[in-house]
Specification:
This protein is of the alpha+beta class. Helix content is about 35%, strand content about 15%. The protein has 8 helices and 8 strands. The strands form 3 sheets. Strands 1-3-2 form a 3-stranded antiparallel beta sheet. The protein has a 3-stranded antiparallel beta sheet with strand order 7-6-8. A two-stranded antiparallel sheet has the order 4-5. α1 packs across α3, α4 packs across α6 and α5 crosses α6. The termini are far apart. About 5% of the residues have low confidence.
Length: about 230
């Protein structure tokens, strides 16, 4: 490890273990759940250590570049990499997620999926880069995938799996694709297959590995899961 200075005496015990785990990620940063998995600390002990290290100005909290906005921790002397949320550009402004840019991108993605009728994250990203690069913020493929997933969880898009047949002949079998909610003609023709968990948000949630009953991400606090429970089938 090599960093302490801000807080004079180096941390010990759990605090030292947490600091070492964070420092080794350098400018990439690390989420609370990842720290917990690496240190095997309880949620309460980890929260206490993070608070102590933050107060001693040994670590800092940043917003992830992902549209999911996961909080990440980083050594105080490191600057966030572009992937971790550093700098401006993309969907970020001064290191913070630009909600207006995200809203505009969501609307743009819906229009592109409507135009393409059946889309993948690659096809939407390619369309933006080829046709709208000059007028659109520079977004990554990962960010487009996150936006499409959020639109699916908000019931704006339908997520499907390509069979490689019919309307999906140009999309490799098994590839996740999207169409605007309500457009089901291809499914009726057998060109695409609804995902087994299509109606349950858990089946397509990118944070399912972090979901625990008593954690910051849990079924009891998930707005998408609770919204699904209120649906009438």
């Amino acid at each position: 490890m090599r960093q302490p200075a801000a807080g004079t005496l180096p941390p010990a015990g759990d605090d030292r273990k947490v600091l070492e785990t964070i420092i080794k990620t350098e400018s990439s940063g690390i989420t609370k759940d990842e720290i917990r998995r690496e240190t095997n600390l309880s949620f309460a002990a980890l929260t206490k250590s993070l608070g102590t290290l933050t107060k001693r100005k040994l670590i800092k909290k940043i917003s992830s570049r992902s549209v999911s906005k996961a909080e990440m921790y980083m050594g105080i002397k490191f600057d966030p990499s572009p992937e971790a949320g550093g700098g401006g550009g993309g969907l970020f402004s001064d290191g913070k997620l630009d909600l207006e840019a995200v809203g505009s991108l969501r609307g743009l993605c819906i229009r592109i999926v409507t135009k393409q009728k059946l889309s993948t994250s690659d096809s939407v990203h390619e369309f933006i880069m080829k046709n709208l690069a000059a007028a659109t913020c520079n977004v990554s493929l990962e960010q487009i995938a996150d936006v499409l997933m959020s639109l699916f969880l908000d019931n704006k898009l339908i997520e499907m799996k390509s069979t490689g047949l019919g309307e999906c002949s140009e999309i490799p079998a098994g590839t996740t694709c999207y169409r605007v909610a309500g457009a089901t003609t291809a499914a009726a023709r057998g060109g695409i297959r609804l995902s087994g968990y299509a109606s349950i948000p858990c089946g397509a949630c990118p944070r399912i590995s972090m979901c625990t009953p008593d954690g910051p991400i849990s079924p009891s606090t998930c707005v998408y899961y609770n919204k699904w429970l209120d649906l009438k089938f």
